[in-house]
Amino acid sequence: MKRFLIRLILFVTVFPALLVLVFWDVYFHLPAALLVILVSSIGASEISWILNVRGFPSNRFLVPVLGAMFPILAYLELWKLLSTSQVLMIVALVIILISSRFIFAQRDQFVHDILLRVVANFSILIYPSFFSYFIIHLMKFENSSFYLMVFLLATFGNDAMAYVFGNLFGKRGALKISPNKSIAGFMGGFLVSPIVLLVCAHLWPHLFGTWVNALSFGSLAGLATILGDLFESALKRSASVKDSGNVIPGRGGMMDSIDSLLFAAPVFYYYLEFIGAK
């Protein structure tokens, strides 16, 4: 009950603050973009810690840079300071530089750990950094404040209702990797995303397309949100840790709060790119 109350207090205080940032549309949502960059960097450090628990070491100074790299590049794209091809070129150069560093290793232990370090560095570059790239790109659309608001409602709402339904109606774990999550929780959370999109399609059809598109997308976003949550649970389960960190009371680490958003972000972005945003 105490954990539930803490999570409820966080939701009713932090979520409105996020909405303020979302609608503070200055310089392509600069305040929100800076928050995404910071969160991605912290999340990378938490993933680095989880990997290190399993024997995959990484450089503690390099990790936050890798975590922030993709969202920073995405924001520079919004300003047309970089093209997509230039972003890919920079990423390729960074990968080459990181890889080249291992060629000149001298210490026996470092040489022995090269494969483990490569896996750790590239994993961190993808998760959460690469997925955060799409969150930044949601800021490029016209009416981006509304889209960001719906993105947060569809994902955080999914996560919140999964927790509520799981506690009220769930009896046993649905998956071995996450024994505390139940079928009832999955269903309760999943339904939130299509409902949010259907309501938005009804209120703003010119922004979200037809109800058929909204229902289809909401279902995909709901599934992606759940998969994002379960993927991080799988990582923690593999490392035998309960939370990714302790920076957020009642929630654990930063990744414990944003894991649901990460897989949903590219789904949401490509929906707006090809179907929703006009």
Outline the fold blueprint.
Blueprint: H1 2-23, H2 30-53, H3 62-78, H4 84-103, H5 108-112, H6 114-137, H7 144-169, H8 183-203, H9 205-208, H10 211-239, H11 254-276
Question: Keywords, please?
Answer:
about 280 residues; single chain; globular; mainly alpha
Percentage of residues in helical conformation: over 70%
What value does the average pLDDT take?
A: 90
Task: Provide the domain count.
Answer: 1
Q: Give the ordered list of helices and strands.
A: HHHHHHHHHHH
Question: Which sheet architecture does the biggest sheet show?
Answer: none
**What oligomeric state best describes the polypeptide chains here?**
single chain
Parts with pLDDT < 50 across at least 5 consecutive residues: none
- Span between termini: 45 Å
- Our estimate of the beta-strand percent is under 5%
Secondary structure tally: strands = 0
Number of discrete helical segments: 11
Structural class: mainly alpha
Backbone shape: globular
Instruction: Report Rg.
Output: 19 Å
Description:
- The chain is globular, with a radius of gyration of 19 Å.
- The N and C termini lie far apart (45 Å).
- It has one domain.
- With 278 residues, the protein is mainly alpha-helical.
- The protein contains eleven helices and no strands.
